[in-house]
Amino acid sequence: MACCHKLLAVTVLFAALFQATEVEGGVRFSTLERNLVVNAQIQSQNVSSGVAKVGVDSLAVQWNLNSSLEIEVDSEYASVKVKLCFAPKSQIDRGWRKTDDDLQRDNTCPKEIATKLYRSEGNFVVWRIPKNVPGGEYFVRAYVLDTQAVELAYGQNTDDAKTTNLITIIPITGRLPSIDIAGIVLSLFSVVSLCSFLLAETLLDEKIRFQNDLLNHIGVIGPRALAFAFTN
Ligand SMILES: *[C@@H]1O[C@H](CO)[C@@H](O)[C@H](O)[C@H]1NC(C)=O
Ligand SMILES: *[C@@H]1O[C@H](CO)[C@@H](O)[C@H](O)[C@H]1NC(C)=O
């Protein structure tokens, strides 16, 4: 009987734990107010291109509280996390970039641009686009966080459907950066090491065989010859 009670207790405990993790999740994006106004512009060497090149160009992002809101709305605002997000076009056929209303499961905005303390008068950041950002269509979103880093509100530089003001980022052209060269050198190095190892082993085998032969002939050759063989 005691065992059954224990089993029951354990089952209940597990069920409770499971439910807790199920329910917990993150903040739902659909519950956030769009209280920030966000602008993002490409700062490019080539002004006429209208696209941003990784490693060279930057994004200038600026945000502030929507001035038509009542004053107290930002009393809990502590910081602003600015992120680079995939536009729907660049999510097609890529499950790992999928949008989820639960922000803990959302993969729309994988790249953090900056986190800054919240200031009601707004703030900005200029961010050089790193080389590891994949080419595609993007927008910029800023989350307002409280002191516990829980999302309270947001703003983005595009409409709700994420189709306007998109930023086109183009990747490094021509793959031959240092990473590839390093890879080739490493492969060559491992092939050479393997060959040397095999060669060394073969030579060692030969040597052992030679010594065995020598020992077999000790009786015939005599101690003087043996001394000669080992000193040479
Ligand atoms: C600037 O961009 C335009 C349009 O993409 C292109 O035709 C031109 O070659 C670029 N100039 C430089 C210096 O990269
Ligand atoms: C600011 O908020 C008002 C009221 O909610 C809204 O109508 C307006 O579009 C917002 N402005 C911007 C730039 O988001």
Keywords:
232 residues, alpha+beta, Immunoglobulin-like, 2 domains, 7-stranded mixed beta sheet, 4 helices, 26% strand, binds 2-acetamido-2-deoxy-beta-D-glucopyranose, transmembrane, signal, nitrate transmembrane transporter activity, membrane
What can you see in these coordinates?
The protein has 232 residues and is of the alpha+beta class. The protein has two domains: 28-170, Immunoglobulin-like, CATH 2.60.40.1930; 174-232. The protein has four helices and ten strands, in the order H-E-E-E-E-E-E-E-E-E-E-H-H-H. The radius of gyration is 33 Å and the shape is elongated. The model has no long low-confidence stretch (mean pLDDT 83). The structure holds 2-acetamido-2-deoxy-beta-D-glucopyranose (2 copies). One 2-acetamido-2-deoxy-beta-D-glucopyranose (NAG) binds at residues 37, 66, 68. One 2-acetamido-2-deoxy-beta-D-glucopyranose binds at residues 37, 66, 68. One of its GO terms (molecular function) is nitrate transmembrane transporter activity.
